[in-house]
Design goal:
heterodimer, A: mainly beta, three-stranded antiparallel beta sheet, 12 strands, globular, B: mainly beta, two-stranded antiparallel sheet
Chain lengths: 137, 203
């Protein structure tokens, strides 16, 4: 069944297609056609937002964090169940260095496989402080 | 070569060549229905009928000249904006103006910008505010006229959409550059402490 973009708070217009990247500490305050994020990462280039699948009315955003089920894997939450971030943009982050207060590692394609990238050999711990190609806000 | 007959131009062809004479400039959308009885056609936020009203230096007190405009109703997020009626000195809904209204343009260096200003409701967070509060910083959508380009003026408080630009040519003649020709849907997106950004789609 089709939905009408703009019909309700969960179907914004441009907001349906664009998100910042969220982390373990991020949350969004969602009102009618007004979304405010407390913290996260924006793209350094461009308008700051990544593109997402507009067909899913999820009002959060693509989230990079340690898989809470494992604690040793860093992943894009929900990467395989629904498209949180445009595939091209998700691939663009492969090779980026993720740095926290305790350690760092380099993202591989495994961060998109659902379980996440095994970083148990590192000293990294959430939240990330810097991610290449992204700027924290 | 041949051109089908139409409104606003004539075409002649001869052994000396072809001539097209544009009598009335074409527009992106029709202003009037075709002959024989043309009727003005409104489209959302279309600016039209710029009229220069001369001043009267003999009046007591003397009055200065001013320029009025008309704008067709349009919506943003299904909401009807307000515009300032200088006769009643009230902000009134664009589709419900008091008879005898006058909308006055603000010029600077012969140019006036018409824009829509809208902000989020401080209490509910809705964008734009659903109910006007009548204050100078009312976040309810307002059609405003100012002498400077509103582009780049966005803040956490307001987002601006430039609707049209009116330029004084001289001798009571004005040109209109229309930038928005339809009703709008807009979103406000804010990242942390960064200035909010406003995105609009035309419908």
């Amino acid at each position: 069944m089709a939905v009408l973009i703009g019909d309700s708070v969960f179907y914004p217009t441009w907001g349906a297609f664009r998100r910042p990247i969220m982390t373990v500490d991020s949350f969004a305050t969602v009102d009618s056609h007004n979304i405010e994020w407390n913290s996260g990462f924006r793209t350094t280039e461009g308008n700051g937002f990544v593109s997402r699948d507009p067909s899913f009315p999820y009002t959060g955003g693509p989230t990079l964090l340690l898989n809470p089920s494992l604690g040793t894997h860093f992943f894009l939450a929900g990467a395989t169940s629904h498209i949180q971030m445009n595939q091209e943009e998700a691939d663009e982050l492969i090779g980026s260095v993720v740095t926290s207060a305790t350690g760092s590692f380099t993202l591989t394609v495994d961060y998109l496989d659902g379980t996440g990238q095994d970083i148990s050999s590192t000293t990294y711990s959430d939240p990330p402080l810097t991610i290449d190609k992204l700027t924290p806000f | 070569m041949a051109f089908q007959p139409g409104v606003g131009y004539t075409f002649t062809a001869s052994s000396q060549g072809e001539t097209i004479n544009v009598i009335q400039p074409w527009n992106a959308f029709p202003i009037y229905t075709p002959e024989p009885d043309p009727v003005f056609v409104c489209a959302p936020f279309k600016v039209h009928d710029i009229v220069e009203v001369p001043g009267n230096p003999d009046a007591d007190p003397p009055t200065s000249s001013y320029v009025t405009y008309e704008i067709c109703p349009g919506t943003v997020n299904n909401i009807m904006p307000q515009v300032y009626n200088t006769v009643t000195e009230e902000w009134e809904y664009l589709d419900d103006l008091t008879a005898g209204y006058k909308l006055i343009l603000e010029f600077s260096s012969g140019v006036s910008w018409i824009a829509m200003r809208a902000g989020k409701d401080a209490a509910s967070g809705d964008f734009p505010a659903l109910t006007p509060d009548g204050t100078p910083d009312d976040p309810y959508p307002r059609i405003i006229s100012q002498g400077s380009d509103p582009a780049g003026s966005d803040s956490d408080l307001f987002g601006f959409v430039t609707i049209a630009k009116v330029t004084e040519v001289g001798g009571g003649v004005y040109t209109i550059d229309q930038y928005v020709t339809g009703s709008l849907w807009g979103d406000r997106l804010k990242l942390g402490s960064l200035t909010a950004k406003y995105y609009y789609a035309r419908i």
